[in-house]
């Protein structure tokens, strides 16, 4: 999955329990993690919206729910606090549990307070067992470094490290800022000595100091403040006290659970009960609400922002992780050195998004077909390409093509079931399309995204005007397809007076919807409103069964392409080509001293060797065996690793 536009939230469903914590790596532009009430810590890549791996945090008892996660400032380790009073330290690269500290973390049901030092990669702090004090850790030591008992009279909801430029911290290297649920904020040294205290007068859950050095923005009229959120949002200036309070009516009397500033302090993000994420613009003397950014179905208890303010991630009780792109440009351009030639306004958020679903499988003509289709789709605005391979491993050649094309894409795997291997009986690409449709349900069921679904086979030919036509689809749009067997085309028959469908001109007539897979497009909202919409493994009936499952009638169909008088898609098919044979190329003189080894490597298709066996009394038997394949060996749920392929070596 790839984040392709600003303001389009994605909801990642990789947990089986309420998600209580999220955190971005401070050293990686796209890496973030989440922890939930299923005992798992998930690691993600924000650019691809992709799960990289899952770590299971084990405990001696049954209570293994995770209620907070944080990265160390070097990005090498993840800290996970659990309801079993344990703090686990995980290695980001291997997933190994490096260390665990028992009976030192708060075991409450809500999000726990946990923080790591932004300067020292070995220092961390969390709320202690009763929730009213702090536990300090040196991650190089097997036991906690220190305990600060009963720092607050009530449970501590949030902790953060405070920069030493603040006036009451200047004589110390750093300080801790802790917030109790009753709205009491205390600044202390690492060994518990009191530095400063103030109260905001309302129940509170989160505290967020402005990110700049204290007083550095005074010349521009901005004072450094501490924002405290809970029943309302209050701002505090050490010299002046409480300066601002957003009324609780702004939040519909719901609790704010997390506040985060952008890196330059200009925007404040707030998340809380009701699952609503809001933005506030910071002005010299107040913060102005800019409105709702997006929302979850369940309450949000944690939130974080990527190092360059490109992504915001949220943790919700609805078992999802929310991810939204905060920048205006198409971030996939980083893959392509020529992407700067593409119009920077090519992707806008106010148009309907087209989801192009392409099933594909390994064959000699796969890469030429996919390259041709990619060259077409590069011209389409507001489009997401969902490519689904009929395989258990991702093709490295296909991954390289997708990244090089600078097209927003999702790359999925859906191997054909063993019981449906006969393409003439069961049809081809059904499992691929079902996988893509399920992905759309999982990703967009929680959103108001406007979209159109179109099934584009990799060997067809498309006029780019087709995509502007189908963007207007309200329910189901239909249009002719050229080069269909015997009749030369497949098209709906319209009454010229009413422009309504009265029949079908298709070689496989007799179906209620006698249409080719490339001859219709479906509204995303219609598909999501039909939970039973699916496809069947039966050649010739796949399209008809899918459209019937949408519970539509002929009167719901929307003829396009000039009332079905213009052909904008052709059912072309590449001529079959055999895989190259090792036996043929081995005759080249001085093969290893030529350009051919590298050329065959870059061809990125299988090479086969012919083998012959002769047995007494039996005819000669021949077959081909693959000796070189461009397939990677990364399973669907693992990170794809680019393993260099060695050229074939042939003795002269």
UniProtKB/TrEMBL annotation:
CDD domains: GlcAT-I. PANTHER family: GALACTOSYLGALACTOSYLXYLOSYLPROTEIN 3-BETA-GLUCURONOSYLTRANSFERASE BETA-1,3-GLUCURONYLTRANSFERASE, GALACTOSYLGALACTOSYLXYLOSYLPROTEIN 3-BETA-GLUCURONOSYLTRANSFERASE P. UDP-alpha-D-glucuronate binds at residues 359-361, 390, 428, 433, 457-459, 571-573. It is a single-pass type II membrane protein. The lineage of its organism: Eukaryota, Metazoa, Ecdysozoa, Arthropoda, Chelicerata. GO terms for cellular component: Golgi membrane. It is an enzyme of class 2 (transferase). GO terms for biological process: carbohydrate metabolic process; chondroitin sulfate proteoglycan biosynthetic process. Its cofactor is Mn(2+). This is Galactosylgalactosylxylosylprotein 3-beta-glucuronosyltransferase. Its EC number is 2.4.1.135. Keywords: Glycoprotein, Golgi apparatus, Manganese, Membrane, Metal-binding, Signal-anchor, Transferase, Transmembrane, Transmembrane helix. It holds the Pfam family WD40. Mn(2+) binds at residue 459.
